[in-house]
């Protein structure tokens, strides 16, 4: 229903690249000043406040008293001295006076003129007051009679030290804080290249074989091609002289290209581990700070460290975050980014291959990289790290289950078959989830069922307990059954693995279909079958209730995207023909490079695209309606079973509906031709 997914591990056009939920997300590193520094800053401010408060009281802040009280006190002989300027008088009492008197402090009748309610009564030996507007004749004589000294300087100035501290104390504290911060940074950062506060230091993490568990090619599985290409790099690092003896230049930079979680970092570490050299790793996003020039300083420092420890590996993760083609970056950080990038180029040109340093970098967007990075002598080698195929997935599962006690019924080959599209990181996560689940269930080993449940949680999202009315549940059941029935009756549809009306993740119900094998090439009929299936939820609601809900939003989005790709990328519209009408999308990586600027086609073509997309959707809608009407009996039966049992697996679905699994596509010749020997890029 709402945001209802038909998760299907292999998406056309992204046979490998589609990101699966549950994989590790790496948000861009956001560099903030260390939290401790902030804490200390706040503490200093607080200290400031208290110091000021103490001196303020020490300076004996004057109380403001009414003129009459001043005269009363003077008459008592309690006023030692005054200083007057204009209508205001300040002075010093012989004995401190408390004002307002405590017991009447908040009594409005005793409120001193001009003062608000709630004035706390205070005791002080200095005071201020204001001469009334009418002149008080004989005041001077009265004062002299009462031995009040009429001072020539302001009374407060007597307390010179206090006011000095009051004025400069906070500033002194702040200066002290900065001096301390600087010295601390200098101690940590050290060195000349450290720059102010050491922010020019690279912060690169160095993995040393003795500290971290050493990673070797044994820990990397399922990406053998990439691994083989890096063997040469290992050889070179083991004996740099051997390669350059005859004047040849060894590789300087290798770019690892692959979807997130395919093991690029792991591979780089394994190269270092195999060669037994230090590994300096840094994410490119970490280079760039708010301050221009810092990134470049960090790059310099990183290469300096590596040189001192050569032979060594420098690994720069997320290269695209700084390596974007210059002039193409967003406003703002561009000049900093450019400087950082230039520094990397300079450094790479600066060392000779004899030094035994190899720079590995990882990216999942090679198309956006600045061409200068890819020139000879820089990242001139590319190693593509693909998502693993079934054999690869099994091997990766084997690596990650090495230390996990497996029950005899666990079939990793079966698990590998069930996980097309998952990356190495996803598979690692799967093993972890399964182990946690088994532990929670109080078992001593991990069983196949734990793996299956963990997979479901990763692919479909965790179950969500929300209370639904009976009417809503029925509607959701019809929606999901619509998807499922079409998955059984449309030729070429992926087998329906599971249907549930238990809300999971974002969805209120889920129909999970998965292909039987990894698919690398998609026949048009298969894509049509998928669109028909995606529309099945809404169509079932229309057929049964004759009304619509918002529950098909996600279905509509997916179907539209697929239809649009058919028209604009795969030349499957006769009206538009085999013309590229959408930017190239790397099937291994997803995303697209963008046309960069204007659309390379006319408004008329744009309109035609929209019409063709609509035509495909409309035709699929008609197909779905026809098929669901024809199988209304099976639809109702499945709904009854779902309302009763909530979740049905493949066998139960077949039993309840009495339908056979969907027939294979008869018309396979398109994909056969493409797969049969002739290589189409
Ligand atoms: N081919 C693989 N074999 C074994 N383990 C793998 C493989 N690929 C990924 N993993 C596991 O997944 C974890 C994460 O992978 P890694 O960080 O190397 O991916 P990445 O390609 O660098 O991802 P990103 O692009 O997100 O940085 C690894 O530490 C490893 O445990
Ligand atoms: Zn749906």
Q: How would you describe what is shown here?
A:
The structure is a single chain. The chain is an alpha/beta fold and 681 residues long. The chain folds into 4 domains: 60-158, Signal recognition particle alu RNA binding heterodimer, srp9/1 (2-Layer Sandwich); 192-385, P-loop containing nucleotide triphosphate hydrolases (Rossmann fold, 3-Layer(aba) Sandwich), CATH 3.40.50; 390-460, Helicase, Ruva Protein, domain 3 (Orthogonal Bundle), CATH 1.10.8; 470-675, Up-down Bundle (Methane Monooxygenase Hydroxylase, Chain G, domain 1), CATH 1.20.58.760. The chain is built from 22 helices and 14 strands. It has a 6-stranded mixed beta sheet with strand order 6-8-9-10-7-11, with helices on both faces. A 5-stranded mixed beta sheet has the order 1-4-3-2-5, covered by helices on one side. Strands 13-12-14 form a 3-stranded antiparallel beta sheet. A hairpin with a 2-residue loop joins strand 2 and strand 3 (88-99). Helix 5 (224-238) runs parallel beside helix 7, helix 17 (524-545) runs antiparallel to helix 18 (553-568) and helix 18 (553-568) packs across helix 19 (603-630). It is extended. The two termini are 38 Å apart. Residues 1-33, 104-111, 186-197 and 667-681 have low confidence and may be disordered. Zinc ion (ZN) binds at residues 4, 479, 483, 537, 552, 555.
